[in-house]
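Support request, please re-run this one:
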Amino acid sequence: MRYFKRIIIGVIVSALSCLPLYATDLTVKDLFFDDSKPYHLKIIDVIPNEGIIQIGKDDAKNTIIEFMDYFCGYCKKVHPELLEIVNERDDTRLIFIQHPVLSESSKLLASMVIAANMQDKGVEFHNALFGIDGNLNNAKLSKIIENLEINAAKLNIDMTKKSVTNIVNLSSFLANGSGARGTPTFFINNEFVIGYIDKDRINNLLN
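Re-run finished. Output below.
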């Protein structure tokens, strides 16, 4: 835990001083030095609800957090395995946090998913993006929006809002500060794991 406190404090202090405060009473001091709650769970408290893509119950015994990018091949590879785990176990939840590091298009998709979350379509949109066969293009993206009955006009407006940009920035600040230099990177409960891991190893790290 001391390792994480050292590497994230400079980044997160800077991030929280630049970004607006959200609906949380969590302070920088609480994030780093209050050990009454595990660090990986406090990350979730910092990010607004619109920025959280969650599958599974809030009170699940196990929490898997993935810092991910929609253009990351290994994120796409692990995604069906993560879904299998949460479908097979009722004691585990998945939380996906935006960490668009690969391109400007990654940031665009991250903003779109957060905007879709404002229409309660975030999980479906997220899963559909990782379920695309082949490369993503505008035609496939438009088809997803149509199939999910997302209000395209509202989506386009919401994804350009400053609040959405701030959520993407905050998520990436937290990811970087936690040590996620690339994607995928995980917290599997308290265990910090960098890079792709298969379903069996993930299950071995769960309680």
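Strands lie at 53-55, 62-68, 92-98, 185-188, 191-194. The chain has a mean pLDDT of 88.
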